[in-house]
């Protein structure tokens, strides 16, 4: 098979996605794990492609002009691990919110996702504003506790 630079970048991205799926946070740093995984996939691709006598390299140019190679892209992306952890927290928060009682979910959804003011929500429910504020604070405390436990 004849791989061009775009194909190699795609192979690298697939290796990165697989590394994210298989990464164990207790064993090693994310950046070194993904770097090694991608390097090994590139070496495997080169070995399996050897019969075609193509030269494949993890240092191959990404942009076609030689100004940026794949290792520079990996090294420049320091926030991958942080972004992954933020994503996990967001998923966890979504699960907690989806497990709220229906009236709690409605309050959080309308106020934070539909930009309802607490005053509008209180008048919609025919409840005093102060009661809605206390309810909102209690729900946020409940969410905070669940986030800290996990």
From TrEMBL:
Keyword Nucleus attributed: no
GO biological process, one term: DNA-templated transcription initiation
Entry keyword set: DNA-binding, Sigma factor, Transcription, Transcription regulation
One Pfam family it belongs to: Sigma70_r2
Single GO term (MF): sigma factor activity
RNA polymerase sigma-70 region domain: residues covered: 7-50
Keyword Signal appears in the UniProt entry: no
Domain of life assignment: Bacteria
Protein name per the record: RNA polymerase sigma factor SigF
Species name: Clostridium magnum DSM 2767
């Amino acid at each position: 098979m004849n791989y061009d630079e775009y194909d190699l970048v795609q192979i690298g991205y697939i290796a990165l996605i697989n590394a994210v799926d298989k990464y164990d946070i207790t064993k090693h740093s994310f950046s070194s794990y993904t770097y090694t995984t991608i390097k090994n996939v590139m070496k495997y691709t080169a070995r399996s492609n050897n019969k075609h006598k193509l030269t494949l390299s993890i240092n191959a140019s990404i942009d076609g002009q030689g100004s940026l190679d794949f290792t520079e892209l990996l090294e420049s992306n320091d926030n991958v691990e942080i972004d992954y952890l933020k994503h996990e927290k967001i998923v966890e928060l979504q699960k907690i919110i989806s497990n709220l009682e229906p009236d709690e979910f409605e309050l959080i959804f309308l106020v934070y996702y539909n930009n309802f003011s607490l005053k509008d929500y209180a008048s919609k429910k025919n409840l005093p504003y102060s009661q809605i504020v206390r309810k909102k604070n209690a729900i946020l405390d409940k969410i905070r506790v669940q986030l800290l436990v996990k």
